[in-house]
Design a protein that fits this description.
Number of strands: 21
Strand content: 25-35%
Bound molecules: S-adenosylmethionine
CATH topology of the largest domain: Rossmann fold
CATH architecture of the largest domain: 3-Layer(aba) Sandwich
CATH class of the largest domain: Alpha Beta
Shape: globular
Distance between the termini: 31 Å
Strand order of the largest sheet: 10-11-9-8-5-6-7-14
Radius of gyration: 23 Å
CATH superfamily of the largest domain: Vaccinia Virus protein VP39
Number of helices: 13
Structural class: alpha+beta
Largest sheet: 8 strands, mixed
Length: 430
């Protein structure tokens, strides 16, 4: 791989004696890792039943392991949301936010969802996580990853940082800004990062990050924390950006900075800075308006009585204009003026008469189902191919699981489980 000469000159000047080691790091393949979804299974338990070899744990994220294998995104456990494949050094930023249960957290530049799903695992299902992505197509992928990982307390929005700052104001306990950057840490993984690199692009990224950070600053409440991260090494986007930010925002203090470089750690490199907002106003949270319909709630209760073996409360069940019903996380602020991909758990659709469960319901709540079809890993491949499976469960909706982990929804009819896995997710070719 031919790295940009100007990039190399800058790095040589910065790193001095360490430059040959830095250069040498580009001769090895890119590091890969898998982060276990501790919302579904502990890292130790996953390690005990992983169907492929796992390497050492990632030093800064104890639920992650280095991996070598190909096609890990096509494994049954991946479909079940037991893990997320993520570049290891990218895992260093989210833990710095130190999210606590019950907090209101914003991931401002969130697609495809590596750090969102990491934050969600750390939050343990409590509090509210808003994962935002400005790009519509990328926001859709983010939403699919949130669904696959079975996260119940997350709303996925598609809006600009400015829209969010104007609408929400300073309400968040924690804000992550994983900014778009010149991607110098992506050179091994994506050739386009090398081809697109130029000094102009670095400076352009720095200007864009400045704008995003100014919006983010307005979203953090007094006493709240913000983490700014990039996967690049340039001074202008990293340490220089931090200095500039502190000059413009004296209400923030810098708590720490971390820079992982590819010749010093097993990873492609990342930068993160942790800030605390020490002054400023905190805006009152406007609670999310729940739009409900008693007929729709009755239809859902009839379903939940059979499916879960109990009638779930409907006080947070929202009926959208598209007739989709969602279980809104407690404490969710009103998300007006932005495109919403997901408002908590999509439960299903009400057609005016009956309730039809969604795939997302199985992924987030399927482990609580009283009606389950439990498949082996081999049998699960049949379901993932979109085929029917045989089972002697009585007629009705059921959660289809691989071992104890939900994979989706099915409907038993006379001993056959009809496959309701969304067509777009039937990607299994293994
Ligand atoms: N946090 C993600 C993860 O861990 O998977 C990676 C985020 S990526 C580094 C940066 C994201 O910022 C991209 O998805 C990109 O679409 C988005 N972005 C691009 N321009 C933006 C802007 N002006 N404001 C906010 N986000 C932007």
């Amino acid at each position: 791989m031919k790295l940009p000469e100007e990039f190399l000159r800058i790095m040589q000047k910065r790193l001095g004696d360490a430059f040959p080691a830095f250069l040498h790091s580009y001769e090895t393949p890119a590091c890969r890792a898998l982060r276990v979804n501790t919302g579904k299974i502990s890292a130790a338990e996953f390690a005990a039943r992983a169907p492929f070899p796992l390497g050492e744990r990632v030093e800064w994220e104890q639920s992650a392991f280095y991996v070598d294998g190909e096609k890990l995104g096509a494994d049954v456990y991946h479909f079940a949301g037991l893990y997320y494949l993520q570049e290891p050094s990218a895992m260093c930023a989210a833990p710095l936010l130190e999210v606590k249960e019950g907090e209101l957290v914003l991931d401002l530049c969130a697609a495809p969802g590596g750090k969102t799903t990491q934050l969600a695992a750390d939050m343990g299902g409590s509090g509210v996580l808003i994962a935002n992505e400005i790009d519509f197509k990328r926001a859709k992928i983010l939403s699919q990853n949130v669904e696959r990982m079975g996260i119940s307390n997350c709303a996925v929005t598609c809006a600009s940082p400015r829209t969010l700052a104007e609408h929400f104001g300073a309400i968040f306990d924690k804000v992550l800004v994983d900014a778009p950057c010149s991607g110098e840490g992506m050179f091994k993984k994506e050739e386009s990062a090398v081809l697109e690199w130029s000094r102009e692009n670095v400076l352009g990224c720095a200007a864009r990050q400045r704008g995003i950070l100014d919006c983010a600053a307005n979203l953090v409440k007094a006493g709240g924390r913000m983490v700014y991260s990039t996967c690049t090494f340039s001074e202008e986007e990293d340490e220089g950006q931090v200095e500039d930010f502190l000059r413009r925002h004296p209400e923030f203090a810098l708590l720490s900075m971390k820079k992982l470089l590819p010749h010093e750690v097993r990873g492609e490199g990342h930068f993160a800075a942790v800030f605390e907002k020490q002054a400023g106003e905190t805006r009152r949270i406007k609670p999310c308006k729940i739009s409900s319909n008693s007929d729709a709630n009755r239809a859902f209760s009839t379903f939940s009585d059979k499916f879960f073996g109990e009638i779930l409360p409907t006080d947070r069940v929202h009926l959208g204009q598209d007739r989709k019903m969602s279980l809104v996380p407690a404490g969710m602020p009103q998300p007006s003026g932005m495109f919403l991909f997901r408002l908590g758990v999509e439960l299903g659709e009400w057609d005016g008469r009956v309730f039809k469960p969604a795939h997302a319901l199985a992924m987030a709540l399927g482990n609580r189902a009283a009606r389950k079809v439990v498949l082996s890993r081999e049998e699960a491949k049949t379901y993932l191919r979109g085929e029917t499976v045989e089972n002697n469960l009585s007629d009705g909706w059921c959660a289809v699981c691989v071992e104890e982990f939900p994979l989706g929804i099915g409907k038993c009819v006379s001993g056959t489980v009809k496959n309701h896995l969304p067509k777009a997710l039937r990607l299994y070719h293994g």
